[in-house]
Amino acid sequence: MMETAFRLGRAWHDVSYNVGAYFLRRWRRETTARQGFGLNRWASTRDSDLFQKAREALSASVRSPGSRARTVDMVIGQPLSSGEIDVLLRTDPEIDLALAVGLAGRGRYAEAEERFARAFKAEGDLPREGLAAAHVARAQSLLALGRIDEALGELGRTLASRDTRELEKAVALLGRLKIPENATLRFADRLKALPREIGGLDGSPAYVLALGKAEIAAGRTDSGTELLLKHATATDDASLYAELAVMALARGRPEQAVLMSSRAASIEPRASHELLLSRAFMATGDTKEAASALRRALALEPLNVTAVRNLAGLELRMRRPDQAERLCGTSWVRAETGR
């Protein structure tokens, strides 16, 4: 019975969304026509039956958690003024917060911050779910606007949620924040201080990853690499092992790059991981193992041009022109050898 009611409710909000989107498109065409004749845009908003129908449907759709995100995404993708959005969705602090997060996700930070400020004035009326992630989104907006101290303060507010799942999601977002160069050190220090404010956070894989990336961005490469390796070991994250291998090569540590790329290839057999392993072996001078890695890359992706050419080049270095010719043809070998 409850499942049936849930499905009916979801179907109703799907209908509301589709009806609202339809009438909004029609209203936009009407508005464009009015402006073409020099008529007032806001008069169309107030008087248009199409706008009122869109408003009735979308203000219902946006209040359903199941359809809120797509309603917000659709509305902020339209050429609407802030005032028109307020009228259309009958905004309240909860809807303002959803709009702010959506605008921040699109890089419209000034508009996002205006709505964040409005929504958080009534923070006591906001639902707890998603609040920590919203504080992270606001921190990104403030960072982008150059308000670094406020952004760092906002990070502490992520801890307002004591819901472990919510906090984990929020901390995961920290690792994806774009930090201005003049704030990397302070951001890393702020992250490092968070476990003193909430117990157990330093054991969170998401926190370890976020702090590791922040430490590297701040120039503390050794401690950052150690944290990233800790995260990769705990989660068997092949892409992170590959990232660590690239970093090791850039720092002139080919043996470490071999270990990291080998681990990436064993967890997730991919041609890109074998190509990286080949680079690492070449950096150590081990052409035989480099060639083996390239053959494994070709076994995974027979048409991988980079693997074919690199292996042909190695065959030439190992004085096996017949093997190189088999891979790339006689003309390629002649061009490479000048014969």
Describe this structure in words.
With 339 residues, the protein is an all-alpha fold. 77% of the residues lie in helices and 0% in strands. The protein has 20 helices and no strands. Helix 6 packs across helix 8 and helix 8 (131-144) runs parallel beside helix 10. The longest helix has 35 residues, at 2-36.
Rg, rounded, reads 27 Å
CATH class of the domain at 254-339: Mainly Alpha
The ordered string of helix (H) and strand (E) elements is HHHHHHHHHHHHHHHHHHHH
Largest sheet: none
Please bin the fraction of helical residues: over 70%
Low-confidence stretches: 1-10
Number of H- or I-type helical stretches: 20
Give the number of DSSP strands: 0
**Distance between the ends:** 81 Å
Structural class: mainly alpha
The fraction of residues in strands falls at under 5%
CATH homologous superfamily descriptor of the domain at 254-339: Tetratricopeptide repeat domain
Under the CATH scheme, the architecture of the domain at 254-339 is Alpha Horseshoe
Characterize the overall form: extended
pLDDT averaged residue by residue? 82
Q: Per CATH, what is the topology of the domain at 254-339?
A: Serine Threonine Protein Phosphatase 5, Tetratricopeptide repeat
